[in-house]
Inverse folding.
């Protein structure tokens, strides 16, 4: 059995001034984004990943290759080693998506949405898990500062690529979709410029399969959001003004419900629940002062909770964790 996870770490910026930073992450400025706070942030993220101990984890809001490798090194110091890793850095967006894996990454490519910096590339990786091919698409869709039509752009590009790979393949779509798993039922008037049509439900075709996994009849051309396999009160990864939302999802092709060699382990989808990740009824996000100039307080984790699921894997060929080599493409 392997554990697969996704985690929006909330703004892991390095200490190199690139000109793309958010104002409060300009290194060594009045905001006190400095070596001390940076190291605390790295240690806190590492603590969460170590406690989950995932075999594969997708990450969102990584600024740069430097920050990514610094996190990898912190994990190694904390006893967690990922031989394989990839970062979507073909485009100079302010934050990027990435992946760590204990299994060999066969290839990495990026799916561009459009040329503007408003859209982050989707990271596609093909991974060899004990001889089984696994395709993972790591996402960070446009935030809700934008309307639903902007998230639909990402959904269309993603769905087209899934069709090209094939619905009969082992495919996992995960990350921060900035969309609830039932966004079509919850979308508010400020975001609804598509007549209630949403990227996650309508474009990714997840609204046809909405029952627990053990009762699903796989349908070609449709995707299954694993949140439907969790108890309703547990379906969240984000809390905004005491309102729980599932902005982060793990979505699979139905092949992963029926494949005899590689398949989802039912009822294992959950947000990662630890007391230290909560601050009362809110997530214990990375802390900033409440008044300008905003300053880093050197404590907290993320405004998102990690989401995890487990999969059963049987050997299928010669692939294994110990294959030689390291994959990373700049």
């Amino acid at each position: 059995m392997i554990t697969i996870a996704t985690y929006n770490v909330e703004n892991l910026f390095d200490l190199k001034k690139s000109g793309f930073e958010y104002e409060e992450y300009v290194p060594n400025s009045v905001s006190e984004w400095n070596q001390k706070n940076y190291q605390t942030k790295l240690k806190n993220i590492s603590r969460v990943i170590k406690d989950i101990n995932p075999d594969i984890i997708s990450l969102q809001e990584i600024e740069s290759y430097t920050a990514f490798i610094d996190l990898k090194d912190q994990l190694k110091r904390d006893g967690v080693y990922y031989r394989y890793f990839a970062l979507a850095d073909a485009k100079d967006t302010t934050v990027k998506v990435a992946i760590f894996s204990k299994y060999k990454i066969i290839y990495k490519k990026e799916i561009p949405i459009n040329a503007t910096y408003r859209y982050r590339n989707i990271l596609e990786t093909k991974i060899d898990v004990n001889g089984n091919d696994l395709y993972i698409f790591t996402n960070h869709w446009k935030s809700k500062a934008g309307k639903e039509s902007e998230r639909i752009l990402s959904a269309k590009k993603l769905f087209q690529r899934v069709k090209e790979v094939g619905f009969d393949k082992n495919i996992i779509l995960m990350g921060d979709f900035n969309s609830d798993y039932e966004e079509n039922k919850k979308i508010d008037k400020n975001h609804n410029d598509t007549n209630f049509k949403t990227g996650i439900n309508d474009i990714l075709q997840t609204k046809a399969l909405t029952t627990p996994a053990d009762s699903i009849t796989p349908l070609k051309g449709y995707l299954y959001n694993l949140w439907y396999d969790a108890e309703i009160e547990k379906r969240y990864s984000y809390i905004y003004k005491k309102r729980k939302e599932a902005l982060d999802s793990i979505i699979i092709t139905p092949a992963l419900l029926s494949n005899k060699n590689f398949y989802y382990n039912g009822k294992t989808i959950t947000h990662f629940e630890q007391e230290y990740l909560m601050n009362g009824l809110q997530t214990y996000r990375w802390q900033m002062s409440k008044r300008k100039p905003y300053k880093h307080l050197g404590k907290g984790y993320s405004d998102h909770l990690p989401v995890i699921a487990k999969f059963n894997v049987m050997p299928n060929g010669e692939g294994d964790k110990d294959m030689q080599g390291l994959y990373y493409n700049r």
